[in-house]
């Protein structure tokens, strides 16, 4: 075997897997599994399949997931930069499936960086509802924010907090919570040789203490009747079945829920944890934790039995590196909401005058906004919109994005920019944070005092002189029909890569598709095969490249 596994890990797995052990250990000599998941916020799965430059094979437990041969280098394609898919280990696609987020849900992804499951949840929310995505590591939230933005997510807040502090601000708030827990990473051994070296450092014992604390904290954030999914990428029963059973012992108002089991998944193994409890062994003292003055919690009759309903994904049974997934359902009545599903407090909509068009996320038709678009084919002169109509459009935007106030300059500059450049309503409370403007999907006061990496959908910032610079997040989330100016690049032509490298492009105004009343000069949404990739600023035949420096194509 090419990988040197920790001897203690091998002996434990041998004992538990028995006759299965040989095929489990043989799986370490096979190539690792790689996957991509189509980002349906930007493209339908069928549309992607038709356009895909890759050979793909469906992942049975995730409708939008596909196996890919890594030699096809999915990270080196313009579609990756346009956010059309996320590169994700196949078994890691199951937890967000088990969570079953639906448009309108309020969802917390507590241990979220770098964002594989958050972007999957966001795609399932389809822009409706709220995603609070968090990680305790400040460094890792940078990648989390980047992936959220690259995927065109409009309804997420990115936090860098402890579970306890989030719980203070969001009591009984979320319909669904994902805990993709920090773990000893035994399922990563094939994918990442460093995981073997880290196994001793992030010992099972240390991880179980973190997991127990995280699980205990989230219960108070879940709305009545809500659902938690707990997942790890490790095999140890201390971190899986035992954690679930300890949680159930302390939270009798929860039950293990059914999973939409793939026939390729194996059940949880309560007997492994039970054996450790009986023998007084195991790698975590939590196995023997007792209620004050009482017996060990896991020795209670039937304490571990419900964990058989969890799922284990094994590398020798399914084509995935390995995962443990368990659904925990709150047994209380489903919480009724004062607001319609997906509108948390002061979100746009309820009782307000609302533009006739729904936000265009996910729409395929270009609707009436596109009808007046000029220059589509052959560059006919754009129709002029009169001043009164432009002002009315500005007022409509004002009414649609509710003002949270503070920095008047930023607020005004942002609304003026949106009125001119984004002829489509955006949802959220306009929140000004320093020089930045956000469309915030939650009540802004909930974020006060928290370490926030993104207060919502970042719209842009004001630079010196009051100039509004739209954010890359805004470009990545817009559909072409939502931008006053777009230019279409082809992935088959070198200029798409030139753009992604940050180079200046030169072309005449006839290539700029314009909404009625829009001049050619100004910010242009650059699309690759029709999917937004970033901003450029066009004037006099030159497109100044606004693709962010840290995102550029290298090599
Ligand atoms: C398995 S990784 C998450 C992977 C992520 N869910 C994804 O799909 O891309 C676990 C994460 O938990 C974070 N973490 C560890 N302890 C935490 C805590 N107490 N609260 C929140 N996050 C924590 C780690 O920084 C790490 O990024």
TrEMBL record:
PANTHER family: 28S RRNA (CYTOSINE(4447)-C(5))-METHYLTRANSFERASE-RELATED (PTHR22807:SF30), NOP2 YEAST -RELATED NOL1/NOP2/FMU SUN DOMAIN-CONTAINING (PTHR22807). It comes from Saccharibacillus brassicae. This is NOL1/NOP2/sun family putative RNA methylase. The lineage of its organism: Bacteria, Bacillati, Bacillota, Bacilli, Bacillales. Keywords: Cytoplasm, Methyltransferase, RNA-binding, S-adenosyl-L-methionine, Transferase. S-adenosyl-L-methionine binds at residues 111-117, 135, 180. Residues 351-368, 382-400 have a biased composition (Basic and acidic residues). Pfam families: Methyltr_RsmB-F (PF01189), Methyltr_RsmF_N (PF17125), Methyltranf_PUA (PF13636), RsmF_methylt_CI (PF17126). One of its GO terms (molecular function) is S-adenosylmethionine-dependent methyltransferase activity. One of its GO terms (biological process) is RNA processing. Residues 24-331 form the SAM-dependent MTase RsmB/NOP-type domain. Residues 345-400 are annotated as: Disordered.
């Amino acid at each position: 075997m090419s990988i040197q596994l920790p001897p203690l890990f091998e002996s434990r797995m041998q004992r538990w897997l028995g006759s299965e052990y040989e095929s489990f250990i043989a799986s370490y000599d096979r190539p690792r599994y790689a996957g991509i998941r189509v980002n349906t916020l930007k493209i339908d799965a069928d549309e992607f399949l038709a356009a895909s430059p890759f050979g793909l094979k469906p992942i049975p437990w995730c409708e939008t997931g596909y196996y890919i041969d890594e030699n096809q280098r999915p990270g080196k394609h313009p579609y990756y930069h346009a956010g059309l898919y996320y590169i994700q280990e196949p078994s890691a696609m199951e937890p967000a499936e088990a969570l079953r987020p639906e448009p309108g849900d309020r969802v917390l992804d507590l241990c979220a960086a770098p964002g594989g499951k958050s972007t999957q949840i966001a795609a399932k929310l389809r822009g409706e509802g709220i995603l609070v995505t968090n990680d305790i590591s400040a460094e890792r939230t940078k990648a989390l924010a980047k992936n959220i933005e690259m995927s065109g997510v409009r309804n997420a807040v990115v936090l860098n907090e402890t579970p306890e502090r989030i719980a203070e601000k969001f009591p009984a708030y979320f319909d669904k919570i994902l805990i993709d827990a920090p773990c000893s990473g035994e399922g990563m051994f094939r994918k990442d040789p460093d995981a073997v070296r880290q196994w001793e450092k992030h010992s099972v014992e240390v991880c179980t203490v973190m997991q127990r604390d995280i699980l205990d904290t989230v219960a108070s954030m879940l709305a009545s009747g809500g659902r938690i999914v707990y997942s790890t990428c490790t095999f140890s029963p201390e971190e899986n079945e035992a954690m679930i059973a300890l949680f159930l012992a302390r939270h009798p108002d929860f039950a293990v829920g059914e999973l939409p089991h793939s026939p390729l998944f194996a059940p949880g193994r309560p007997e492994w944890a039970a054996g450790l409890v009986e023998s007084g062994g195991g790698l975590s003292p939590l196995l023997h934790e007792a209620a004050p003055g009482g017996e060990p919690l896991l020795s209670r009759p039937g304490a571990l039995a419900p964990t058989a309903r969890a799922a284990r994904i094994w590398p020798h049974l399914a084509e995935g590196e390995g995962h443990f997934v368990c659904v925990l359902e709150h047994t209380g009545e489903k919480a009724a909401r004062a607001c319609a599903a997906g509108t948390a407090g002061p979100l746009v909509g309820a009782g307000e005058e609302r533009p006739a068009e729904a936000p265009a996320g996910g729409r395929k038709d270009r609707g009436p906004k596109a009808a007046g678009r000029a220059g589509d084919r052959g560059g006919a002169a754009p129709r002029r919109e009169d001043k009164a109509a432009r002002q009315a459009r500005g007022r409509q935007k004002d009414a649609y994005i509710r003002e949270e106030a503070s920095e008047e300059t930023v607020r005004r500059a942002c609304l003026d920019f949106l009125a001119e450049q984004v002829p489509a309503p955006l949802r959220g409370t306009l929140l000004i944070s320093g020089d930045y403007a956000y469309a915030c999907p939650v009540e802004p006061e909930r974020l006060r005092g928290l370490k926030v990496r993104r207060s919502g959908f970042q719209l842009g910032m004001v630079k010196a002189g009051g100039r509004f610079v739209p954010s890359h997040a805004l470009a990545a989330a817009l559909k072409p029909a939502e931008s006053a100016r777009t230019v279409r690049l082809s992935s088959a032509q070198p200029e798409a890569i030139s753009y992604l490298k940050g180079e200046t492009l030169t072309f005449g105004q006839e290539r700029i598709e314009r909404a009625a009343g829009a001049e050619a000069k100004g910010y242009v949404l650059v699309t690759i095969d029709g999917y937004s990739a970033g901003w450029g600023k066009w004037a006099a035949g030159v497109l100044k490249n606004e693709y962010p420096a840290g995102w550029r194509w290298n090599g």
